[in-house]
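FAQ: What does the model actually see?

It sees only this:
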Amino acid sequence: MTEYEVLLKSVEPVRVAGIRRVISKYQAIGPVFAELCQHLQENFIKPVGPGIAIWYEPEFKEHDVDAEAAIPVHATTIASSDVTVHELPDVRLMACTFHRGSFDKLPAAYTAVGDWMRSNDYKVVGPIREVYVEMDEDGSPNNYLTEIQFPVVKL
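And it is asked to produce this:
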């Protein structure tokens, strides 16, 4: 029995400021978020929601990952050539689960969602999102809460 509960839900559109680039590996998204936060701070733009990593690769890759670090904002523009403000579209069906703990344990949550999709005849139809719901201000990764969202359709 898995420790992850997978549920289906719809997701509303959200305006984000983001930096999209090809990164060496998934763990390299952290410095991209730091760069994004610096741009927001320099432009006096306040986040209005948790950070979101968007993985544009259709399948797992060892390196050269097409990714975006994004943060919800009210702003419509930002004075930076590296940052774009755009709307993440609504998604009618997201297969989601929550992971409590450090990022290095996230693969177990991904495996749980993948197993659930295979067992229930769903397939991924777009970029996967990681929503960083809670981050420990003291930096303890044991208290992180990450929601993993897979846009899906029934086969």
